[in-house]
């Protein structure tokens, strides 16, 4: 299947600092990428949809000024957590959508995730 | 509203068969996905159904009934490595995935 990478895999930072997470599609072009957050023992929560060359679409309750998303190319989307606080500590996962033009299928492939710990 | 329901936890024995059910209500429907997620890792794609019926892929099979808003994931010949959370997700008319909370599957020897 398709490969999506994320970097870094682990981040520990002090409260008030900003953290950038990269999501790359390695062997395909992704016009649409998604950013999820997952707290322990909970399901994935969609934060935003990132479209190449346009502004991201944020889900209700997600602060767009705090979680900055940039999708500058067809293979790279970045999520920047600005002025991170301990409550932002979570598992952040990106995914890229691959449309199947032969049918109605659009599968999402996930990156390995980035675990953020804010002290 | 949109909703996905699946059991929180299930336990099964190594070598046995287990069926994980999922019911969904979405605005429009563009398919039902199953993902496997091991603890501390990102989800990995298992299956996709958009037409009614059973799709078999090795030890794993997935079933869909659109009229009932129902799907199940069937795991045969269970192995210890199958211990994981299984996430059901339905794709709505906007091609957004609506996620269930996941079913934690515990395999006992």
Roughly how much helix do the residues of chain A carry, as a percent range?
under 10%
Q: Element order, helices and strands of chain A?
A: EEEEEEEEEEE
Based on helices, strands and strand pairing, what is the structural class of chain B? mainly beta
- End-to-end Cα distance of chain A: 36 Å
Q: Tell me how many strands of chain A there are.
A: 11
Give the DSSP E fraction of chain A (strand runs of 2 or more residues): over 45%
Q: What does the radius of gyration of chain B come to?
A: 13 Å
How are the SSEs ordered, and which strands pair?
The complex is a heterodimer of chains A (119) and B (109).
Chain A: E1 4-7, E2 10-13, E3 19-25, E4 32-38, E5 45-51, E6 57-58, E7 67-73, E8 76-81, E9 90-99, E10 106-110, E11 114-118
Parallel strand pairs in A: 2-11
Antiparallel strand pairs in A: 1-3, 3-8, 4-5, 4-9, 5-6, 7-8, 9-10, 9-11
Chain B: E1 3-5, E2 9-13, E3 18-25, E4 32-37, E5 44-49, E6 53-57, E7 60-65, E8 70-75, E9 84-91, E10 97-99, E11 103-108
Parallel strand pairs in B: 2-11
Antiparallel strand pairs in B: 1-3, 3-8, 4-5, 4-9, 6-7, 7-8, 9-10, 9-11
Structure, explained:
The complex is a heterodimer of chains A (119) and B (109). Chain A is mainly beta and 119 residues long. Chain A is built from no helices and 11 strands. Chain A has strands spanning 4-7, 10-13, 19-25, 32-38, 45-51, 57-58, 67-73, 76-81, 90-99, 106-110, 114-118. In chain A, strands 2, 4, 5, 6, 9, 10 and 11 form a 7-stranded mixed beta sheet that branches. Chain A is globular. Chain A starts with a strand and ends with a strand. Chain B is globular. Chain B has strands spanning 3-5, 9-13, 18-25, 32-37, 44-49, 53-57, 60-65, 70-75, 84-91, 97-99, 103-108. The mean pLDDT of chain B is 93. By secondary structure, chain B is mainly β. In chain B, strand 6 and strand 7 (60-65) form a beta hairpin. Chain A binds chain B through residues 1, 34, 42-46, 49, 91, 93, 97, 103-113, 115, and chain B through 30-31, 33, 35, 40-45, 48, 50, 87, 91, 95-97, 99-102.
């Amino acid at each position: 299947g398709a490969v999506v990478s994320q970097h870094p895999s682990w981040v520990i930072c002090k409260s008030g600092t900003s953290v950038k997470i990269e999501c790359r599609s390695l062997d395909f072009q992704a016009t649409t990428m998604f950013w999820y957050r997952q707290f322990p023992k909970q399901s994935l929560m969609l934060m935003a949809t990132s479209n190449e060359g346009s502004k991201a679409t944020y889900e209700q309750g997600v602060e767009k000024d705090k979680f900055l998303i940039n999708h500058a190319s067809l293979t790279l989307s970045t999520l920047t957590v600005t002025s991170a606080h301990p409550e932002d500590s979570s598992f952040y996962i990106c995914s890229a959508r691959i449309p199947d033009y032969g049918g109605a299928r659009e599968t999402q492939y996930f990156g390995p995730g980035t675990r953020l710990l804010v002290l | 509203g949109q909703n996905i329901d699946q059991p929180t936890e299930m336990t099964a024995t190594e070598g046995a068969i287990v069926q994980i059910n999922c019911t969904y209500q979405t605005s429009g429907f563009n398919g039902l996905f199953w993902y496997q997620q091991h603890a501390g890792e990102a989800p990995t794609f298992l299956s996709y159904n958009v037409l009614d019926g059973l799709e078999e892929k090795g030890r794993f099979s997935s079933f869909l009934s659109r009229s009932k808003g129902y799907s199940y994931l069937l795991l045969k010949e269970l192995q210890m490595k199958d211990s994981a959370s299984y996430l059901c997700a339905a794709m709505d008319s906007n091609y957004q995935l609506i996620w269930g909370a996941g079913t934690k599957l515990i395999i006992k020897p």
